[in-house]
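Sanity check

After download, print the first record. It should look like this:
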Amino acid sequence: MPAAATSFIDRHRGPFRLCLTRPHPRKKDRVTTEWLRGVTSSEDVESEARALLQDPRDTITSVSVWSVREEQFVGGYRR
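Expected structure tokens:
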């Protein structure tokens, strides 16, 4: 029987910070990034990232997940 697929959240404990990527408003083929304030627990990372990506009022194209404890990017979500 194949092993169940695991997400990066299963391999990292957190807490996490989220970094948003949007298309640059004036420069084609460029992006801007924005760090959200505060930290997110592992239980809330996926739902918060998906909510940000699905907001029709925003142009977010991806949400990168930074592990505060490990001091590195550990995964992300794309539109």
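If your output differs, re-run the checksum step. Summary of this record's structure: Residues 10-78 form one domain.
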